[in-house]
Write a structure and sequence with these properties.
The complex is a heterodimer of chains A (223) and B (133).
Chain A lengths: L1 H5 L1 H31 L7 H5 L2 H27 L19 H4 L11 H4 L3 H7 L1 H31 L7 H5 L2 H27 L23
Chain B lengths: L1 H18 L7 H17 L1 H6 L3 H7 L6 H9 L8 E5 L2 E6 L2 E8 L2 E10 L8 E5 L2
Antiparallel strand pairs in B: 1-2, 2-3, 3-4, 4-5
Helix pairs in contact in B: 2-5
The chains are: A mainly alpha (223), B alpha+beta (133).
């Protein structure tokens, strides 16, 4: 029971993810089959739908934007600060910070991760492992969106009695950039809102908020 | 590092999913249906009509005409060389000489959704003598 409590946040979000993905699959196949019936075309089962390019592009376009959002949030907050925001570092801490601040090398503590104590490329890689991982998942998701998006778009084109597109044509196609940018704009707005609104507004008990009584001017203080 | 392994696996899984629907394994059955359809259009139109998608057949016979009477003139034409097949999921297009036909995969196999198609311009739909709703 205690183990569950200790990992509750990851477990709850993992469960919400699976429920949402299942819902997306169920409603997605219903929508696709509705369109197929309207055109006198065959309907498909859930198994075929979740392995189709249509489902893959719908999933990947959202994944890539979420991972881009966190990648940029992780990287830009190294150098950019926001006065009064709990999402920002203190105003005088911009940049990569000193080894002492970052507890690496000889400044590592006994319970620091072993790679923080390592020298050379291993420490360097570990020092950027969060950004690298987020960046890799972003690039993979965006690539998958491109590949699956072209396949799904070409199926639509053929259904409309049009020529399918090659890779180069799809790279400049409104379908690819429309899917990409409609997700990016919402992610950037959400981050900007969080950074600014958290200066003035509070959520008691949340580490994403400042303590309720904390002054608006306090920067980098989380509750 | 386990995180990088997870990221790599996720990326690979998504890319594989992204490739789903390319359907190169379906090229042969599509080409086979196209071959049987085009071979039968003039010589045995009844068999050609059996290869039409239900909605397309309904559309062809909407004015009370028999499919076998309409098909030879509507979808006949020369085909030479090798067919070019594009398959994406359950949709396919075949270009074969002067012939362009569109197909969809039903539970019992590929069926022709449009035939006797002429290009009308870049990015514009083909104008097909035989097509569905």
């Amino acid at each position: 029971m205690r183990r569950l409590r200790d990992h509750g946040l990851a477990l709850v979000f993992g469960a919400l993810f699976l429920l949402s993905l299942t819902g997306q699959a169920l409603w997605g196949v219903a929508e696709l089959n509705g369109e197929a019936r309207d055109r006198g075309l065959p309907t498909i089962g859930l198994g075929e739908y979740v392995t189709s390019s249509t489902f893959a592009v719908d999933v990947a376009e959202n994944w890539q934007s979420e991972y881009l959002q966190f990648l940029l949030f992780i990287l830009l907050t190294v150098w950019f600060v926001q006065k009064g925001s709990p999402e920002s570092k203190p105003l005088d801490k911009t940049g990569r910070e000193s080894d002492e601040d970052q507890k690496v090398g000889r400044h590592a503590t006994p319970d620091s991760p072993p790679l923080a104590k390592a020298e050379g490329w291993r420490r360097s890689l570990y020092s950027h492992s969060l950004g690298l991982t987020m960046g890799l998942i972003f690039l993979g998701s965006w690539s998958a969106q491109f590949v699956a998006g072209r396949a799904a778009h070409n199926a639509d084109l053929i259904r409309d009695l049009k020529e399918p597109e090659g890779w180069a044509a799809y790279l400049t196609d409104p379908d690819f950039w429309g899917r990409t940018l409609q997700n990016w704009q919402s992610e950037f707005l959400a981050v900007a809102s969080m950074v600014v609104l958290s200066i003035y507004l509070r959520e008691r008990g949340s580490p994403e908020s400042k303590p309720v009584g904390e002054p608006h001017e306090s920067t980098g203080v989380e509750g | 590092m386990p995180c990088l392994a997870v990221a790599g696996a996720t990326t690979l899984a998504l890319l594989l999913a992204g490739c789903a629907g390319r359907g190169s394994a379906e090229n042969e059955p599509v080409a086979d249906t196209a071959t049987r359809f085009l071979a039968s259009v003039t010589s045995a139109p009844d068999q050609g009509c059996d290869l039409l998608a239900p909605a397309t057949l309904e559309e062809v016979e909407a004015d009370g005409e028999q499919c076998a009477d309409v098909l030879p003139e509507a979808a006949g034409g020369e085909q030479s060389g090798e067919p070019t097949v594009d398959v994406y999921g359950r949709d396919a297009m075949v270009r074969w000489g002067e012939q362009v036909i569109f197909l969809a995969r039903f539970d019992d196999g590929w069926r022709v959704t449009a035939a006797g198609c002429e290009p009308t311009g870049k990015d514009l739909p083909y104008d097909c003598e035989v097509e569905g709703p």
